[in-house]
């Protein structure tokens, strides 16, 4: 738990300001794919793969805990709350308007500003449809498909197709990613 007003909480707020400055550059006007990757490297604090494709606008409140694999595609209007950590495996597609959240808040109203981080892990060759929401702590298995508009509250098995609110397994893809 990261307590409201703690040194860690202040650090996260300062890092968020740095991320917002970088994202203002990314989202403020047209950027070539090379410029987008350079700004994503600035946001994450490390080189990103040359095969990464991001269609702005893109939003992140932290940036430094975002880990992107080879051949990842992130479509328009995605929102990543990555302070708790987001890992996206090689060959994964993130549909437009998707939201990935990695922080919960305290249940006690007097402690509501406390934050509880939990990472999101997306396997290889995953496809998130448009406007998918992933909540803190979920893992999406290799080759899985998450249907548009789904809210994923539990881990998704490899090669499964899930949809709905909350997301449920519809069937298996029939392929082994």
Can you characterise this structure?
19% of the residues lie in helices and 28% in strands. The protein is built from two helices and 18 strands. Strands 1-4-7-12-15-17-18 form a seven-stranded mixed beta sheet. The model has no long low-confidence stretch (mean pLDDT 96).
Map the helices and strands:
Elements: H1 7-27, H2 33-44, E1 53-54, E2 58-60, E3 66-68, E4 73-74, E5 78-81, E6 86-88, E7 93-94, E8 99-101, E9 103-105, E10 115-117, E11 120-122, E12 127-128, E13 133-134, E14 139-140, E15 145-146, E16 151-152, E17 160-163, E18 168-172
Parallel strand pairs: 1-4, 2-5, 3-6, 4-7, 5-8, 6-11, 7-12, 8-13, 11-14, 12-15, 13-16, 15-17
Antiparallel strand pairs: 9-10, 17-18
Helix pairs in contact: 1-2
Describe the structure in brief.
With 177 residues, this protein is α/β, with parallel strands linked by helices. It is built from two helices and 18 strands.
Globally, the shape reads globular
Averaged pLDDT, please? 96
Helix content: 10-25%
Low-confidence stretches: none
Strand order of the largest sheet: 1-4-7-12-15-17-18
Keywords:
177 residues, five-stranded parallel beta sheet, seven-stranded mixed beta sheet, alpha/beta, 2 helices
């Amino acid at each position: 738990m990261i307590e409201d007003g703690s040194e860690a909480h202040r650090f996260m707020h300062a890092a968020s300001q740095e991320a917002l400055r970088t994202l203002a550059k990314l989202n403020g006007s047209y950027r070539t794919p090379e410029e987008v990757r350079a700004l994503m490297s600035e946001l994450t604090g490390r080189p990103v793969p040359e095969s990464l494709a991001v269609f702005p606008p893109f939003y992140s409140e932290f940036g430094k805990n975002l880990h992107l694999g080879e051949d990842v595609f992130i479509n328009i209007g995605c929102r990543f709350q990555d302070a708790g950590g987001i890992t996206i495996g090689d060959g994964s597609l993130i549909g437009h308007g998707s939201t990935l959240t990695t922080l919960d808040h305290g249940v006690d109203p007097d402690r509501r500003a406390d934050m509880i981080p939990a990472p999101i892990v997306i396997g290889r060759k995953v496809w998130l449809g448009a406007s998918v929401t992933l909540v803190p702590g979920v893992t999406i298995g290799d080759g899985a498909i998450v249907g548009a508009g789904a809210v994923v509250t539990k881990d998704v098995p490899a090669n499964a197709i899930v949809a709905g609110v909350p997301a449920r397994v519809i069937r298996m893809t029939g392929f082994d990613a």
